[in-house]
Task: structure prediction
Amino acid sequence: MREAGRILRSCHEQIEKWLAPGVTTGDIDERVEAFLAERGATPEQKGYRGYPYATCASVNEVVCHGFPDDRKLAQGDVVTIDMVVNKDGWLADSAWTYGIGEQRRSISKLMHRTERALHKAIAQAVPGNTLGDIGNAIERTARLYRYGIVKPLIGHGIGQYIHEPPNVLPYGKRRTGMMLTEGMVITI
Result:
């Protein structure tokens, strides 16, 4: 699983270099699949429930799970690339959001603040805390900035399957829900 995670991180770092005005998310999807193949890995979501792509690519107002396409990215666009890497039967899942060139101040703030919410949630992901502690960290940070939460979009356990228990909600009450234990692997 660690190796799948290393490949995933390396791929996202490469995507950051590939993204530029004029590039399409379809181009990125093809490059990702080749990148993974060169490392003996595969895109787990390709073929999952009939999904035809190696990545999900969400541009601007598309919140999550957009399809890669041939629309050229432009200066100021925001794109989230979400992928699941399979290396030797073990999975790693991550979505990174990238700004194409200079961003409006409001978009830069949004990206920074949502990343802050993620880091606050990660800080709660320790043995002895609960799933509610993670969700509460996200919710409190969102409220601080007067942002909403897309409640149907949740994290989950991951290992040898894309979606494993438990569900990890982006909201919650502290000290409620499943207790986190050593060895659990979740997406937030």
Q: What stands out?
A: The two ends are 17 Å apart (CA to CA). The helical segments are 2-18, 25-38, 105-124, 131-144. The mean pLDDT is 98. Residues 105-168 form one domain.
